Each structure stands twice: as C-alpha cells, then as structure tokens.
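subagent[fold] <- orchestrator: predict structure for attached chain, return tokens only, no commentary.
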Amino acid sequence: MQTQADIAFQGGGARGIVLNGAMLTLERHGILPRRVVGTSAGAIAAVAVAAGYTGHELARMSLEKTASGKPIFASFLDRGPHDSWPPGTHARCTPSRFEAYGGVYTGGGFVQWLRRTLEAKRQGLGRATLREFYEQTGSHLSLVASDVTANRMLVLNHRTAPRCPAVWAVRMSMSIPFFFEEIVWQPTWGRYLGEDIAGAAVVDGGIISNFPLRLVLPSDNERIHALMGPSEAAPCEAIGLMIDASLCVPDAPPRDWSLSGAVLSLLGRERTMQRLARVANTALDGNDVTEEFAHRKLVCHLPAKGYDATDFSMSDARVRALLSGGELACREYLARRFAR
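subagent[fold] -> orchestrator:
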C-alpha cells in the first residue's frame, strides 16, 4: 500500500550517503515523497528524489566512480577554474583562494556531476531554473542555504527564487564552510521573495538550519507560508531523516587513508585542513536540536559515527556499510512509528 510523506533531509557532507539507504527502505514500504526539503548533503538527496531517482538508483549512485576508478565524490574537491561557473562567481585558481573566496575547493566538479545526473534522468533538468524544475517534474523541492551577507536563511524553491538554476541552488546549499568557495548570487538568478539580493554571498545552509524539519510541518506561521506556500489541503505524514553522528554504523570497516591519495593526505596531515574538517563537522552537527526534541516521533536517526563530513573518498566497503546502516535504521524507525 502506497502513502505520501513530506520528507526533510538533514545535511552532513559525505555522510549524506546514509540518506540514500533510508530512501531504499521508504521505497520498499511504499512511502512516496510529496514535498522534499534538504540542506547541504540533504539538498543533494532532495534534488535527486525530486528529479525521480529511486532508492535503488540512489544506492548505485553512491558507488559511482570516475573514469580513473576513484569515488565520484572525490572529484568534488577541485581547485582549478571551470567553465561551468557563471561570470562573477568565485572560481579562479589562486594561491590565496581561501582568503579571497572563503573556501579551498571550487566545487566545479560537483556542478558538472549534478548537471549530468539530472540530465540523465530528464532532458533539460540539468539547466532548469527552480520554476522550470517544478514545471517539468511536478515535485515540490526546497533547498536551504545561508546568506552570510544578510545573516539569514534562504529557502530556495519555485516560489521564492523561480529564476535561480536548480543546480546552483544545490551548490549553494552544500557549500561546506571553508571547504567550498562561497557563491555570489548572480543578477540573472532573479529576486528572492521579491528582493534583489544580487551580490550576496551564499554558503552551506547547515550553518543556520541543517535539519529543516519545520518547513514540512503543518504551520500557521505566515513566514513559513511565504517560503513553502499555503498548507496542503490533504494531510500528509512528515518524516525527518537525521544523520546522527552518535550512532555507530553496523559492521563499518575502518577508514582506509591510502585509498584517497593526495586529497586525504592533505586533509589528514596538514593542520589547517584538519582544523577545517573539525569546523565543518561541528557546523553540520550542531543545529536544529529544538526540532529534534520537539518532534521526536517524526525523526528517523540514521547512524554515521566514525564518518566525517569531509570523507569524500571512502572505500566501497564503507559506503555499503553506510547504506545498509541507513536501511536498517529506517526500517526500525518505521516499525516503531507505525506499529499497530
């Protein structure tokens, strides 16, 4: 029997793979997404689900490789300029990139990958604006980012920022502080809630709202209505998929530093990068605890202990353990929540 649910995906960097395992379980139980909202890695999961990717396809995507056989996620950590960046964005190769642009990596490889991934599901999605994405898929997709110029949360969807490209909305949402360069809002992306925000610096939504569950809950709040639209006429279950770094991943093998080559050598040995990794993990773990406690029955805790937000080159064995951990945790959650 199929039923619909509004799903909130938490951010967590590379640990977001566990969300794909949870989607496998939801799919097997006939739970279909109605509205999806995500932050950071949760934004990647949300846009893939909204585009029509199934749980099984997401699981396969988690194990995707580059042409050279490396994990596809390692290609997100690139330092050079890329022609996929619009004019005016920060994507120049310079020794002072971190100081000038707020991050070590451009994320151009991610933009390329996401564009290809969306195009593979439906022609035109890779370059669709948020309005066009909604018109082509019928999916209510919302992505959370942080406007650090105005110190506020942005909720990007077809209502609030219709002209913003969907790929760039995700890129802004997943811009882990200090790792990925901040994105400058382009004039061609139009207004946000009617306001001209061209030139605003936008980074990972996780520093403000890493677990945006409240956006899919029934609410009389006018601000929520402005962001998400009027409450849906038909009631719907809400599910929050939380990445819980305090829960052990069953049968997870130890991290293999040798698999990552130069990237993990850099992250593991340079003090600056170690510090950035700690800051990134903290930023993505420390928000929205009020939502978790206020709506405990709606929250599915997915295990991620021992996995770092910046572990973009994990082995296949660790990926599979994370996927299986997400499947199992979600299955146990559904059994508890819907026990009769």
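orchestrator: received. Logging for downstream: Confidence is low (pLDDT under 50) at residues 90-95, 259-269. Residues 9 and 42 are 4 Å apart (CA to CA).
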